[in-house]
Amino acid sequence: MRNMVRKSVAILIGLALTATGLWAAGAEEEAPATAADKKYVTDPVTGKVYTAPEYGGTLTTVRVNDGAAVDPYVFIGAHSLVSQIVVEKLGMLDWALDREAYHFSGGYLTPEWAMTGGLAESWEQPDDTTFVFNIRPGVHWHDKPPMNGRELTAEDVEHSFQRYLGLWDFADAGPGVYTGDFGALAWESIEATGKYTLEMKLKEPNIRAMGLILDWYHNMVYPPEVLAEHGDISDWTNLVGTGPYELTDWVKGSSLEFTRNPNYWGFDPKYPENRLPYVDKVEALIIPEAATRLAGLRAGTIDYIGHAGSTQLFEINQALSLQRTNPELKMYPWSQRSDNAASMNVTRPPFDDIRVRHALQMALDLETMNDSYFKGFGDTIPRGIVGRRFPGFATPYEEWSDELKGYFAYDPVGAGELLDEAGYPRGADGIRFKTTYLHFDRFALSWTELMAAYWREIGIEVDIQTPARPEYNARRNAADWDMISTSTGIEADPMWQIGIFYSKGPHARTVVDAQYDAWYEAALATTDIEEQKRLINQMDTRAIEQHWDIWGPSAPQYNVVQPWVMGYDGEGVLGGGTNYHIFKYLWIDSELKAALGH
Predict the structure, then answer these.
(1) C-alpha to C-alpha distance for 423 and 571, rounded to whole angstroms
(2) What stretches of 225-371 adopt beta strand conformation (E)?
(3) Nearest 5 degrees, angle CA 366-CA 371-CA 373?
(4) Who's near 3: CB < 8 A, 6+ residues apart?
(5) What is the pLDDT of residue 17?
(6) 281-286 and 58-63 as β-strands: parallel, antiparallel, unpaired?
(7) How far apart are the first and last CA of the chain?
């Protein structure tokens, strides 16, 4: 097992799940056995065979909550869960891209090289601070008042971006609630220079700018006339976009309904003669309980669970159970990060002592935990903040020093010695100290309990607290915690990810490290990608050496679809906050669905 987990996570998960039947059907199995005259297509990217695309039907998906609003100017975060296939961005992840060249698993910002045109047909960068976008002609707003199907123009994009940033004509109103890294750019101007041409200028170069413009989470283009009439789009019934679907119903706490836009501009890049989208409706049921979602899959009333909606299977036991009862379901494992890690508040004793942080890691027998808890499917190879799919941005575990590797190896005796040295000997009751752990309710509580059991063995008593989301968020943001659930080793834009430990950033934890901050600011300022790579590698190494996070295995999660859902190969999302855009490429084999009694 130890040798097996030293391989890449993709190979590990693939081999293990193929052996247990948990890997999705291969190309030979993808085409259902139906009438001899039924037409099939071969996906030109993946090589999978599907029944030919057809229009119509409803795709039923699920999500854990409603989302709170549709306008990013007035509400942070979850607006994109509602508006994401109604309004659109300038760019999008290229659906026709080789899956070996770029993974489609995560919901993070997409690198520019993996993007294709959305509302912008093309773009160029004539100098270090100027970005020119050619807005796609022939894109029309939904045929709904007050937009009434008029053509999209560059002035619409200018209006939307200026409003969101709170600049120029919108300076008095100020920026939206979370412009984040996009808003932090040094903006000089955003101006429509023609009906289909938009020019954006910075006061200083920024190596991340193009990617942020194209795919920042909230950079959807919103309708000017609606905003002029209502001020914002707090009322979802006022939402109008250019996307493949219109939001036509929203029963709070129950469901959302998206109806096909018959005049959508997009065509399927794999089958270019086909106008998108295929299905008439996307119905999103609000089902927070995992057991209820699984029951819907088994009954055939739910077509998809997965990353879009945060309803993927997080636990291997759920996947094994579902595969036993419903082998016809297509299951797609993927891993983009470790959700089994923990962060420590290094401003508080005892976690301000690096020896304590090392000891907590050394107390965990990751190999045994992986074998018992994840049935051997997890990836235990330690890493820092940056994922392994970005060579050069992080030093691989194999190249770490022996001393550093030792802090990530199971050694309870050594852990005890470090705690003794740090001034935390066992008391008469065997306890060295007591602490609290703020657990995020979306992650598996049983994994946190398992870590706490190992820490108890070396004399650390952990009180696990799982408050409701509002309290959790308030305590997290106020650094009112000793230890907290975290994700690390994320397969995402390394510059974005490395900002987690930048003390002046919006994502900052409890670390204040002058050297780290200086490297981060230098990495932001450089226009040399190799220099940025070197600096990020230094930051990642420092985070590992200082042991600001406890590493836990990166384990597979599972997207699941019914056998009649065609065109799907396990993809997660199409960029930052655009989870539902995958649905515009999928179709329902109505004949197969009926034959299976649904």
Answers:
(1) 50
(2) 245-251, 255-260, 281-286, 304-305, 330-334, 338-344
(3) 85
(4) none
(5) 42
(6) parallel
(7) 42
